[in-house]
Amino acid sequence: MAGRNTYKEDEVLETPFDYHHLLRAGVYIKPYSKKMIVAMILSGLGGIFGLFMPMITQQALDVAVPNKDMKLLYILCVAMLAVFLLSVLFITFRSKIMIKVSQSIIYDIRKDVFEHLQRLPFQYYDDRPHGKILIRVVNYVNSVSDMLSNGLINIILEIINLLFIVVFMFLVDVKLAIVVVCGVPILAVFMMWIKSKQRRAWQQVSNKNSNLNAYLQENIVGSRITQIFAREDENAEIFAELSNRCRKAWMWAVRYSSMVWPGIDTISVLVRACIYIFALIVFANGNYTVGTILAMTSYAARFWQPIMNLGNIFNNFINNIAYLERIFETLDEPVTVKDCDGAGELAPVKGEVTFENVTFAYEEGKNVLRNVSFSVKPGESVALVGPTGAGKSTIVSLISRFYNVDHGRILIDGQDISKVTLKSLRSQMGIMLQDSFIFSGTIKDNILYGKLDATDEEIMEASKTVCADPFIQKMPGGYETEVKERGNLLSQGQKQLISFARTLISDPKILVLDEATSSIDVQTERALQKGLDAMLVGRTSFIIAHRLSTIKNCDKIMYIDDGGIIECGNHNELMEQKGAYYHLYTSQMDDIA
User: CB under 8 Å to 409, separation ≥6 — which residues?
Assistant: First the structure.
């Protein structure tokens, strides 16, 4: 998808839907095909038993009642009750089976979509509002599951049911059966006309709902900012506009969907009227009994019922096809950052990092880095400084291979990181970002994210090293304290300290600190610095920090600007040069003074 997609923009399908998507969806149906066949047989039996009821009625009206044969009438009543109960019984069992199948299909699709989303590169999430991604995993999967389970079975069943009804009609009377069947071409023309209009209308509903969901999710996350800047009224107006667009799109789509059932019902009524006209006037030879006419009208109503059901199923298919397209569009999103063919395991890292003429751009033609080359020895600490947007975070993201380089290569201990598995690379790296994300769960769970088999002693030791243990011990449940989504019970500084512990416990060989102490107060930072100094020993580290006082002791400082490295050296060397770093450092010290 080119460019950034926002809540204001409709998502555009890159390819039109074709019915090969339904064949592709067969992979989710196949594991449950046996259960679906059993359910289909049960439904078929229930439908067949139900078809005997008009014949029983005909016999009662034309034979038992005129001849006052009470014994036959009782037998016919018992038979009608029996076929009704058997029909209900079979359909009930079928419903139970299909509920389980439907939920299993939901599970399988949602699992595949989520697992694929886990592997997609950062670029995918950079370009899309998270609300538009969320709606695909939850709402769209729910919508298509019934189509893939009950929908496909019902199509087969209704066609079989229709064939049986036709047979029974011709057994009752051939001429009147032909009258009923003549209504089918009229229906075919009607359905072909409405098909294309429905699909386009429901695609618009999908687009507008996606936009609304994206804006809603964005505002829930940013609710504090909304209130800080008193944006409630403006946001409410935007939400009202998006909601209105959803309403209009829905009403437009429903306009066509609501035409399907009345259209079929109108044709059905006309056909039944024709039965009376032809039986009593056109074919008026005195051979048509009341029982025959009632049986034929009953079969005619039943004949149009499966057609109406097929119309509803078709209607449902049209409604959900747009959702199925969105799901497959997500599954087809290429995993651009992945293990290459024949990728090997990255050997235990010593920590040498080399950039060889690396060029990278988030958007084609707008290079963030141009032919960047440098080498870092094992155990060295490197600080990256420079103006905002110069490419500091980009460099550390490329080392972790969150993005692929456009040109050049990155080596760790002489191994090209594009030729090793992502797991073996990232498992030996520790990355602390400025945005310290905290998952819902306990504080202990969040620290364990760095090493799932860590002991309680290791957790406490890591927390003590980064000065997180004191405030954790003061919390009501200590390490077992539950924190809500994004850690909203914690201060930003506490989140960063927990993230430090999470990173440290993984014992990384290469450490990346991207503005990792930005939300920690000066007093805590000073205490933390001792732990960080111990943490950096024996590890290659890349540190991005705006407070230059925190990186004075780094082995190497690289000033990044204009797509490359402007200056490189230790603090004293760069101060002597009186270049870009000197001016940045002195201006910051003046501000502090």
Answer: 356, 358, 416, 417, 418
What tokens were used for 436?
């310290």
d(CA 88, CA 82): 10
- Band of pLDDT at residue 525, cut at 50, 70 and 90: low
Express each pLDDT in 139-178 by its tens digit: 778 778 777 777 777 787 788 878 888 887 888 778 888 8
Long-range contact pairs involving 357-365 (C-beta distance under 8 Å, separation at least 24): 357/407, 357/408, 358/398, 358/405, 358/407, 358/408, 358/409, 358/410, 359/405, 359/406, 359/407, 359/408, 360/394, 360/398, 360/403, 360/405, 360/406, 361/406, 362/123, 362/126, 362/403
What are residue 369's phi and psi, to 5 degrees? -125, 140
- pTM score of the predicted model: 0.64
Do residues 544 and 515 make contact, with C-beta atoms less than 8 angstroms apart?
yes
Encode pLDDT of 229-243 as tens digits: 677 888 888 888 888
Beta-sheet pairing, 429-432 with 441-442: unpaired
Contact 161, 137 (CB under 8 A): no
Looking only at the bridges linking them, the beta strands covering 556-561 and 564-569 are antiparallel
CB 504 within 8 A of CB 466: yes
pLDDT above 60: residue 457: yes
CA dihedral for 358, 362, 366, 368, sign (positive or negative): negative
Q: CA angle, corner 208, sides to 6 and 134, nearest 5?
A: 65
**39 contacts 101 by C-beta, under 8 angstroms:** yes
- Across the chain, mean pLDDT equals 81
Beta bridge partners of 544: 384, 514
